[in-house]
Amino acid sequence: xxxxxxxxxxxxxxxxxxxxxxxxxxxxxxxxxxxxxxxxxxxxxxxxxxxxxxxxxxxxxxxxxxxxxxxxxxxxxxxxxxxxxxxxxxxxxxxxxxxxxxxxxxxxxxxxxxxxxxxxxxxxxxxxxxxxxxxxxxxxxxxxxxxxxxxxxxxxxxxxxxxxxxxxxxxxxxxxxxxxxxxxxxxxxxxxxxxxxxxxxxxxxxxxxxxxxxxxxxxxxxxxxxxxxxxxxxxxxxxxxxxxxxxxxxxxxxxxxxxxxxxxxxxxxxxxxxxxxxxxxxxxxxxxxxxxxxxxxxxxxxxxxxxxxxxxxxxxxxxxxxxxxxxxxxxxxxxxxxxxxxxxxxxxxxxxxxxxxxxxxxxxxxxxxxxxxxxxxxxxxxxxxxxxxxxxxxxxxxxxxxxxxxxx
Length: 408
Hints:
This protein has 17 helices and no strands. By secondary structure, the protein is mainly α. It has one domain (3-401): Growth Hormone, Chain: A.
């Protein structure tokens, strides 16, 4: 594979992976305007975010078997088409319920890009390269929060919040064209892969029986849910408590996203000297310490607006150390069931993200405390699972390397 071809594939896979970040981040500055136009509250608008995350979680379980049965591209075409139609539906929403329903449908379509991108990493690159490739994808994904809320804030102020969803439809149409003309096929269709419920559940069960997959999916999914608490809570914290405008909030979100861009690059350097599981441990310990300090400071009233921004930045610096390494380790044992494994891992991540964002809404008390408590709780739970489960995952990996375990 030439260098140019390599980076073109990374760019396309990264773009597919950004569908959900853009769908989540770009409309955040419009929360107050949406609430006003639809005659509802910001906490009700937050439920459209929760609905999106639930849709991603459920949809990935659908696409995993489809990607294994029909190959990577045809299910991807269908998903992107559904996303485009639902985005237009979001722009035309005239009630909170319609917006929530369209966001759910939007997620069902958009999650095809996320599942297909992860499965194609496993298809197109050797196992030894996957952690590096996932780091590149995390970098592309991390750039989107710099762009999406800022652009969304200005678009909302200039053209109204429906323009955000129409823009998402156009962007996804461009991605669909790129997939058709430039993305390799990856794993071919497997006519022998049954889509009957019993067979699909059997494939999922085979994946879940793998201790390496289970441990690192739990660790990565729970720890990686911390930003969803930040995403769900930050519009209210900064625009209601600190009275910032849509544009100002967009710039703060962009500044904080720089933290998530830097850490994947640091991960590239660390991978030269450390194993992925060692880097995961380092990232979780770091975030737990910063998170504890963050919760204590918010509870005690140590921080103003700038202090909160700084401590959030420090916390998010550790995010790029856990996610790419956990993804690489969880998918490493699979080839035949890579689509199903990717779907299960992604579904769990987004399901936890939905619970986390919902928890921030339920615990809403007019302060930043619910947001930071839920963020820190994710990393604490992640590190506990790591310490209790890492031994069994390591034993399985060593057995696999010794040839005692067959690749699935």
